[in-house]
């Protein structure tokens, strides 16, 4: 019996020889649960990985962990993933492929402005990194870093520090 647990209904999709329209709808709905959870690793199940890795032109990594590491560890990785999703041409007949699901997901990604939202997350992540670097480079506890002239900081070359000829 078809169920509605999200954005997509089974009647929106064409069943294949090996997958029902309900399974296609469940995959599409899980895709958006995963994305809107900020790509929560707990939602990246083996079953979801196996289907996702064969859609949108993805070439399966050697493992579920490898796929996750490739596409979901940082905001920039996630943006690259979503970009690949929206640019994929969705080849094939829906009676044999998930191309109908891919097209539906692409439409919903655009409708929800997920690329633009992810671009903002990338900008925020870059700002956080810059702030972190800035804090690490500041002197601690109000102490001022001693500024030595370059000549004082680099010892003058001595005769002993010169390498003799090798030949």
Strand content: under 5%
**Number of contiguous helices:** 7
Query: Roughly what is the average pLDDT, rounded to an integer?
Result: 85
* Helix content estimate: 40-55%
Along the chain, the helix and strand elements come as: HHHHHHH
- Sheet with most strands: none
Give the radius of gyration: 26 Å
Uncertain runs: 150-155, 157-161
> What is the molecular shape?
elongated
* Number of beta strands: 0
Distance between the termini: 85 Å
- Content-based structural category: mainly alpha
Describe the structure.
The protein is an all-alpha fold and 167 residues long. The relative contact order is 0.10. Helix 1 (21-36) packs parallel to helix 5, helix 4 crosses helix 5 and helix 4 (75-87) packs antiparallel against helix 6. It has a domain at 19-120. The protein has helices at residues 21-36, 46-52, 64-71, 75-87, 99-111, 114-137, 150-153.
List the helices and strands and how they pair.
Elements: H1 21-36, H2 46-52, H3 64-71, H4 75-87, H5 99-111, H6 114-137, H7 150-153
Helix pairs in contact: 1-5, 4-5, 4-6
Essential attributes:
single chain; mainly alpha; 51% helix; 167 residues
């Amino acid at each position: 019996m078809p169920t509605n647990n999200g954005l997509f209904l089974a009647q929106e999709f064409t069943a294949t020889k090996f997958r029902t329209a309900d399974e296609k709808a469940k995959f599409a709905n899980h895709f958006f649960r995963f994305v809107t959870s900020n790509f929560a690793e707990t939602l990246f199940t083996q079953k979801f990985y196996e289907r996702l890795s064969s859609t949108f032109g993805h070439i399966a990594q050697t493992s579920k962990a490898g796929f996750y590491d490739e596409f979901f560890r940082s905001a920039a990785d996630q943006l690259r993933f979503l970009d690949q999703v929206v640019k994929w041409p969705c080849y094939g007949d829906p009676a044999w492929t998930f191309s109908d699901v891919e097209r539906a997901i692409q439409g919903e990604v655009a409708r929800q402005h997920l690329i633009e939202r992810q671009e903002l997350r990338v900008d925020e992540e870059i700002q956080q990194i810059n702030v972190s670097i800035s804090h690490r480079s500041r002197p601690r506890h109000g102490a001022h870093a001693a500024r030595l002239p370059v000549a004082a900081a680099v010892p003058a070359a001595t005769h002993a520090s010169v390498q003799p000829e090798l030949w």
